[in-house]
Structures are given as structure tokens and as C-alpha cells.
Design goal:
Elements (H helix, E strand, L loop, with lengths): L2 H13 L3 H17 L1 H21 L6 H5 L3 H26 L6 H24 L4 H4 L11 H31 L2 H16 L15 H21 L4 H13 L13 H20 L22 H5 L2
Amino acid sequence: MTNKEIDHEVDHRRAGPGPASRAVLQSNTVNALRRHPLTVFFVLALGATWAVWIPRAAGVPMGIIAELSTWIVALAAVLAAALTGGRDAVKDLGARLLRWRVGLRWYVLVILGPAAFALTSAGVFLALGGTWSQAVPGFLTGNLAFLPLFILLAALTDGLGEEVGWRGFALPRLLVHHTPWLATLILAGLWALWHAPLLWTQGRVLYGQPWWLFVLDIAAKAIIFSWVFLRTRGSLLIAVLLHATSNVFGVSPAVSATGSLSLPMIAVGLEWVLAMIVLTRARPSFFQPVTDPELVYPGPSVTAKSVRAM
């Protein structure tokens, strides 16, 4: 190689990749993201949330950022949908949120069911020797006329903020390659991991709860949420309402001021009774692949026709 050729090669390397190389790199990056939508979502959701929650758990004041963090999962889902599936994926999230024609009984179930569950937990606690002052669900201590407002606020914050990601984005993609049982287990593990910093954050409902009890609680809830999702044509709206009413009516009681785990353990036990009924009696079966294209989001590389053939 002559000196002139060497100089030309050095100048070319200093100039960096040309337009064609940059286009190839960009295309490869986009294709890589499209192949791994769930990884993109979970990295965004956990990374961004923990960036706020871990410092807060350590006592660092986070101000308004901590309050806004309730919508991080939803924002991560929208961003992951746009990056990995484009406009169609974002439209799918919106369509699920507007899927309201699922039958009146499901609205009754997701709104009144959590209230009935909380009262049942309290009743079992009383039957086992507990006191009403320890067992009374929080929603009975205030003005019941404000319950619809509390449910609406919970739906717009925790419900919408989380469910757009968990049941709107993640579950339909997990169901493409996994049975509902396995998809739910995967989602439950990541759902629990996302919440983990709250176990050590003073002032939060989960503060002081043993990790094993929390994991059992999340796993049972995930099974019930998946069942509702499967029976309501993948409606994100119903999932948001169920999340909101579960929080407002106190389906998962906090550890008592004395550190007693009696009431939370009773609630988790009852959750698992419901979860086992769902797993053994529910239709569609949790142990068979999903064949309804409304329940899954196969992505740009899988057509609805191929999903029906699964």
C-alpha cells in the first residue's frame, strides 16, 4: 500500500461510517428491538421506576417525581410499543383500553368483587378471634359517598399507570409463545420485582411485609387478573378497574401497627383459594395455548392467521 493509499484509509476511518453504514446500523438496531419487545418494555419499566423508588426507599427526597412515577409503567409500555411495533402496536393498546363491551356481569364482578373479598377476609379474621377494629376494611371508615370518586382516582393513577404495561402490553405478547399459566408466572415474577423497593419504603402500604408473603399475594392476583383478561376479550379497561377497586377496597391488607401478619395471611390464603379454582375450573384452560387472536399481540412478524393455527 502506497503512502497516498494509507493516508486515504486514515482519513476514511477518521470520518467515521458513511450514510450507508449508518443506515445499516440503524436498521439492525430497529430489527433487534422489534425481536425483543418484552425485554425493551421490562428494562424501561423497571429501570426508570427503580431510578426513582430505590433512592426514595433509602430516604432521598424525590418530590413530585415520586408521585409521577405511578405512570412510568404505562409510559414504558407506550414507548416500547412505538419502538418495537410502531403505530399498530400503539393503536392496539388504545383499542384494548376502549374495549368496554364485555358484558355487564364483568363490571359488577370487578367493582363489587374486591369489596366482597375484603369483607370476607375481615369475617374470617373475626371468626378466628380477631377484633373488628383490627379487621375493618379501610373503605368502611370513611364516607361511602366518596367511593366512586376514590375508584375513579385509583383507576386514573395506579390502575392506568400499571395495567397499560402489565395486561395491556406484556401479557398479550407473552401469550403468543406461552400458555396462560406460564405467561402469568413470568408476569407475576416481574410484577413482584417491580414492586420490590416498596417493601422497604416507609409510609407505603407494602412497608414491612415479608417478601415471601408479598410474592404469594402478587402471584395469586396475577392468576385472577389473567383469568379476567382471558374472559373479557383482553380488555385493558376491565383490568384497570379491577386494579383500582382492589386497591380502594383493600384486597391486600397492610401489616398491622403491631406487626401482626394474621389479616394479610388470611387474605393471601383466600386469594389462593380463588386462584386454585381459576386454575382448575376456568375456561379457557390456563394450560392450553391461546387461540383467540383478540387476546394476543403477535407483532409484525406473526400474522393473526398463524395465531389462530397455534
